[in-house]
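Hi F.,

I've been meaning to write this up properly since the lab meeting, where we talked about keeping a consistent format for the predictions we share between groups. The idea is simple: the sequence comes first, exactly as it goes in, then the structure tokens exactly as they come out, then a line or two of notes. No screenshots and no reformatting. I'm using this chain as the first example so we have something concrete to point to.
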Amino acid sequence: MATLKLTKNQLKEETTRLSRLQKYLPTLQLKKAMLQSEVEKAREEYVHYERAFQGAEDKLARERSRLHEPLGISQDAIEIVEEVKERAENIAGVEIHELEDVLFAPLSYSLYTTPPWIERWIEQVRGVTRLRIEVDLARKKIDALQREWREVSIRVNLFEKVMIPRTQQNIRKIKVFLGDLELASVARAKVAKKKLLEAEAT
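Output, unedited:
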């Protein structure tokens, strides 16, 4: 750390620095509050998708256990995802991704060798896959927002507990030093004047 110069120029620099810090701190505090709110919303969203996913998966498992005829199509083939389309959004300065669409690999099957409810089954299976992707994106959203919240919190603490108090302390030190110099200068001037008057009197 550079040695503090006890000069008027340094006092001006420190005062300007303090002004900038105090002006920027409320912006950081606001961003921290916004991020905290967004983290809470993202957690609620995650819980919503996680519950929906678990419910849909459990329902699918129950129905699968009751199947007595072959599907006539591979279960794995139904779940093959060709593309996950996402849209980027900016939340409190953080880029997050929301699900836009899930494109599944096209299926080819015979209407004669598959049960009549196969299309509903495919829709259910793919619905579970889509919810799984929503859960994953919701988790990533929480992580991204929490990461940014932690970084902003560190900066807020740095401003509040280190940078602003240190700058205020520097200003006090310089003012005390300059005040002492001024007093010493006045005292020297008085002594010099007194000697001058004494010399004139003799």
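Notes:
The mean pLDDT is 90.
The chain is about 75% helix and 10% strand.

If this format works for you, I'll send the rest the same way.

G.
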